[in-house]
């Protein structure tokens, strides 16, 4: 399921809400039931079921349990996954996080709130160092080099949002980040040689953290399945349990909310990681590259 964030007035159809609604819709259809039949068992209107399945409203645990019983979804792991997804979605909707201080986040707000709630992020990058690993000087250079994103403050607010996001890597319960980065992203002299040397040093230091795994896919690997574009896989429990995939395109954002689309990205990422250098060899590669600059 591929969608962008949708809004109607003060209501929002969230990525996690749609992910949960899509799973329940799949189970309802597999059971051969209508929205009206589902509405009856939870004493709701058919319209409410439609809104729930489209991610417009947060879902209550009792409703999910009743619907799972109606749909004959008895696997405790499956039910538990739906309940966990609902919990994270409810928390995300009411969260008053640091991102509320940055109204200029715009379309990135949905991604940032999900990143804040995630347990794991796997990212494949072709042209840029992942945002969670960018140094302030690297970010400023990106802002200055992109006329569409230039700011009168010299990019200070963009740097501030990056630094705020990066706190997830050092939280008490830190985010696990697994990044596969193509060599081209590391050879682009963003900001010049000095900025890139600092950025490479920062990457090798980050790679020493137990919750950060960095692999480099070198040019010598030749053609590969990730040449079509970059993506982030966001997980909220065990990998694959409730993944959503985020990609940025020239015209906006794209979300892949579970299903075969997310599974395909899982397999694609695994293939890229298998083709890339090991984490230890990647650190050696980045150290060598830094010395060459």
Count the DSSP helices. 12
Whole-number tally of structural domains: 2
Radius of gyration: 21 Å
Largest sheet: 7 strands, mixed
CATH homologous superfamily title of the largest domain = Endonuclease Chain A
Distance between the first and last residues' Cα: 43 Å
Which ranges are low-confidence, i.e. pLDDT below 50, for 5 or more consecutive residues? 1-10
What order do the helices and strands follow? EEEHHHHHHEHHEHHEEEEHH
Estimated helix fraction: 40-55%
**If you average the pLDDT, what whole number results?**
85
How many E-type strands? 9
Report the principal-axis shape: elongated
Any overview of this molecule?
The protein contains twelve helices and nine strands. The protein has a seven-stranded mixed sheet with strand order 1-9-8-7-4-5-6, with helices on both faces. The chain has helices spanning 15-30, 35-41, 46-53, 61-70, 76-94, 108-117, 136-145, 156-166, 183-187, 193-206, 259-275, 279-292; strands at residues 2-3, 6-8, 11-13, 120-125, 176-182, 212-217, 231-235, 244-249, 252-257. Helix content is 48%, strand content 15%. The protein is α+β, with helices and mostly antiparallel strands and 293 residues long. The chain folds into two domains: 2-94, 434 Repressor (Amino-terminal Domain) (Orthogonal Bundle), CATH 1.10.260; 100-292, Endonuclease, Chain A.
């Amino acid at each position: 399921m591929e969608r962008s964030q949708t809004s109607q007035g003060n209501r929002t159809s969230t990525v996690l809400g749609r992910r949960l609604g899509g799973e329940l819709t799949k189970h309802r259809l597999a059971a051969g039931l209508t929205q009206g039949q589902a509405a009856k068992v939870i004493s709701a209107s058919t319209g409410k079921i439609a809104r729930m399945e489209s991610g417009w409203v947060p879902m209550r645990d009792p409703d999910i349990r009743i619907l799972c019983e109606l749909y004959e979804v008895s696997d405790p792991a499956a039910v538990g996954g739906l309940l966990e997804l609902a919990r994270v979605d409810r928390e995300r909707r009411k969260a008053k996080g640091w991102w509320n201080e940055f109204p200029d986040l715009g379309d990135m707000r949905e991604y940032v709130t999900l990143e804040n709630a995630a347990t794991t992020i796997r990212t494949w990058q072709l042209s840029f160092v992942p945002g969670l690993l960018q140094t302030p000087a690297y970010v400023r250079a990106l802002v200055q080099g992109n006329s569409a994103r230039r700011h009168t403050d010299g990019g200070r607010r963009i740097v501030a949002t990056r630094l705020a996001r990066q706190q997830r890597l050092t939280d008490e319960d830190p985010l696990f980040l697994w990044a596969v980065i193509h060599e081209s992203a590391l050879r682009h002299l963003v900001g010049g040689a000095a900025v890139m040397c600092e950025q490479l040093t920062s990457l090798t230091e980050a790679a020493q953290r137990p919750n950060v795994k960095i692999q480099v896919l070198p040019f010598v690997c030749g053609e590969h399945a990730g040449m079509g574009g970059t993506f982030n896989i966001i997980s909220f429990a065990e990998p694959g349990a409730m993944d959503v995939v985020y990609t940025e395109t020239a015209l906006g954002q794209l979300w892949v909310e579970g299903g075969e689309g997310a599974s395909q990205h899982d397999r694609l990422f695994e293939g890229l990681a298998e083709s890339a250098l090991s984490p230890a060899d990647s650190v050696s590669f980045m150290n060598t590259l830094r010395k060459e600059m």
